[in-house]
Write a structure and sequence with these properties.
By secondary structure, the chain is mainly alpha-helical. It has helices at 2-9, 31-43, 47-64, 69-85, 99-112, 118-136, 152-177, 180-208, 225-228, 232-239, 256-265, 276-284; strands at 23-24, 221-222.
Length: 286
């Protein structure tokens, strides 16, 4: 491990520079995954992190590129959404869920959006879209939300939303309390979790979904050849490396300004609320 890391550090840092040529093939992956990948490119700074991202993308390319487009879209979309909603937070504040809260979140987003990366912005817009949907249905009003205050069909819908809130409230708490910089760090941590879970499950897809696989391999990513030429064993070792040498902790500081400027220019499309199919899958795990 030490030897491999030493050899890796001798590789010119320019070989790990991320640019527009390292990207997703956008007609093969859903919008949610595009935003995730774009943001990870912006947020990862150290050589170790960059090699981790290259290695995961190469694995996904190998394990998922044989899937039919519709299967791949649903798999990636559902994994990004489910893993985002099921992300574990240590503590969550209690607060009133009202129209006023939605208005406050919308005003806060307007101030922070230029500093948020595309994936952070997607999370913000998605949560606000979910809340506005329930406001339009009459569940969120000027009064604090209480599912038992409704009757008939509205009561059924309110109880269903109440169960769903256990996934939304932790994110609302962080949206309401974190700075844009800290929220980007949170979405980066989430991004690693999602990519690793997708990677783990892609191995099962490759092993057990041979009957659903297509006969033609179609790329998910465009990975420049100079990135693919890194030693495979070194990539796999460093993928699991937890310790970042102190001398590398500030690596990429010169790129921060450019990354922030790129994030400020990002204008991801507003995401509509979750589809019933994905929501039903989440409910099954309760």
């Amino acid at each position: 491990m030490i030897y491999n890391l030493f050899v890796f550090l001798l590789i010119p840092l320019s070989a790990l520079a991320f640019n527009k040529d390292f990207k997703t093939i956008n007609d093969r992956v859903p919008l949610e995954f595009q935003h995730l990948f774009t943001s990870m490119k912006l947020e990862v700074k150290t050589p170790i992190e960059k090699v981790q991202l290259i290695g995961i993308c190469k694995d996904l390319e190998d394990n998922l590129s044989f899937l039919p487009k519709e299967h791949l879209f649903l798999f990636l979309k559902s994994e990004v959404i489910k893993d985002t909603l099921e992300y574990k937070f240590a503590k969550v504040r209690q607060f009133d869920l009202t129209v006023g809260l939605i208005e406050r979140l919308e005003k806060t987003l307007a101030k922070k959006e230029r500093y948020l990366n595309p994936f952070s912005t997607w999370i913000w817009r998605s949560i606000v879209a979910e809340l506005n949907l329930r406001k339009d249905h009459g569940l969120i009003t000027q009064k604090s939300f209480n599912a038992r205050s409704f009757e008939g069909e509205k009561l059924t819908e309110a109880i269903r939303f109440e169960k769903y809130l256990k996934y939304l409230l932790p994110w609302i708490d962080r949206m309401d309390s974190l700075s844009a910089v800290d929220f980007n760090l949170l979405s980066k941590e989430l991004g690693w979790t999602i990519l690793r879970r997708i990677n783990d499950r892609s191995l099962l897809f490759k092993k057990f979904s041979s009957t659903a696989a297509g006969s033609t391999k179609i790329s998910l990513f465009n990975i420049p050849q100079k990135l693919l030429e890194l030693n495979v064993d070194e990539i796999k070792d460093i993928q699991n490396e937890k310790l970042i040498p102190a001398s590398l902790k500030e690596e990429g500081a010169r790129e921060r300004t450019d990354a922030q400027e790129s994030a400020e220019k990002a204008t991801p499309t507003d995401m509509s609320p979750l589809s019933d199919d994905i929501y039903s899958e989440i409910e099954k795990s309760q």
